[in-house]
Design a protein that fits this description.
Oligomer: single chain
Structural class: alpha+beta
Distance between the termini: 31 Å
Shape: elongated
CATH architecture of the largest domain: Beta Barrel
Radius of gyration: 39 Å
Order of helices and strands: HEEEEEEHHEEEEHEEEEEEEEEEE
Largest sheet: 9 strands, mixed
Helix content: 10-25%
Strand content: 35-45%
Number of strands: 21
Number of helices: 4
Length: 330
């Protein structure tokens, strides 16, 4: 009688609650803090020493490459240009007369060579005089936004006098270090896998998208890290060089079957879950790969959409008939 009663209990369906298995990727998340810097950035100094006659820009002004930022006193240099032009004209005129005279034998060839050398020297002197004028006009080396002027009209400045800063911040670079273990990911990942998001205290709760665009050529042997650079489009011109950023890089992983954490059971031989197939309980060994927010990613003979038991686990045996209840059943 006891044996018959046990067999009857075993054959009676056990009420269980199930959830479908789904597939998710074993993504890793890497977080780091970095400092933003402009795509192009420079501090502007004059090349010569002289007095400032004009300051032609204001703070936060957009300038284009070649725009004059300041002018310095160049009166003496312009007079030198005029003198050099006169000397060049005389040297060329003398060379022309000697070139005609040598055909008639009136002057020796050596005189023509000397006149040609004088003419070339005059051309060089004129270029030097014009360069001296150019050096007294400090120009923007590229398109960008200038900072606060550090000079005023009447100041006498030299090569060690900072005029202002110039930043092209259409794209902001963000440098941070990643561990050596991620070097392989950087070398093999496609463009989509190199996307990052960044947050800055200047705009709480807002994320800015970017992409890892460059990496250092070597690993730091002491820190065992590698410097990488992410590029962030600054189309709204909200971001500034020098801002701190908290970066978040989601590294795509392999897809695995995913089940609720409460469905995973352990015994001496290892971990397992109960699957329901054809109305029967099937004990399926698994290997836990990772845990993600109440779920576990597992390896085993499990397919997407399989029904895994989440409640009623204690009374199950292999081949046990089951009655699947809805999640709200008592």
């Amino acid at each position: 009688m006891p044996a018959a009663s046990a067999m009857q209990r075993q054959s009676a369906p056990v009420k269980v609650i199930t959830q479908p298995v789904f597939i998710s990727e074993n993504n890793r998340v890497f977080e780091a803090v970095g400092t933003g810097q402009a795509q192009f950035s420079v501090q502007i100094y004059p090349a010569v020493t002289d007095e400032v006659t004009d300051v032609l820009f204001k703070a936060q002004q957009n300038v284009e490459k070649g725009d004059v930022l300041i002018r310095m006193d160049d009166e003496a240099e312009r007079l030198a240009v005029d003198l050099a032009e006169v000397q060049l004209k005389d040297a060329k005129s003398l060379l022309d007369r000697y070139a005609k005279a040598v055909l008639e034998g009136a002057v020796p060839e050596s005189e023509v060579d000397a006149a040609r050398a004088d003419s070339q020297a005059a051309e060089v002197a004129l270029k030097q005089a014009r360069l001296a004028v150019e050096e007294r006009q400090v120009k923007a080396p590229f398109d960008g936004v200038v900072g606060i002027p550090n000079v005023d009209v009447g100041d006498r400045i030299g090569p060690d006098s900072l005029i202002t800063t110039l930043d092209n911040r259409e794209v902001l670079f963000l440098d941070f270090e990643v561990p050596e273990a991620l070097a392989g990911v950087l070398n093999t990942a496609d463009e989509a896998a190199l996307q990052i998001t960044a947050e800055t205290p200047a705009y709480p709760g807002r994320e800015f998208s970017g992409m890892i665009s460059a990496q250092e050529s070597r690993i730091d042997p002491e820190r065992r890290t590698m410097l990488v650079r992410a590029s962030i489009e600054n189309n709204e011109d909200l971001l500034r060089p020098g801002m701190s950023f908290a970066t978040n890089w989601v590294i795509p992983g392999q897809p695995y079957a995913t089940v609720p954490e409460i469905s995973a059971q352990w015994e001496r031989e290892g971990s397992f879950v109960w699957l329901i197939k054809d109305g029967m309980a099937e004990k399926t060994p698994i290997t836990v790969v990772a845990r993600r927010g109440g779920n576990v990613l597992v390896e085993g003979d499990i397919a997407d959409g399989d029904d895994v038991v989440v409640e009623g686990l204690q009374r199950l045996r292999p081949g046990q008939p089951v009655e699947v209840l809805s999640a709200g059943a008592e």
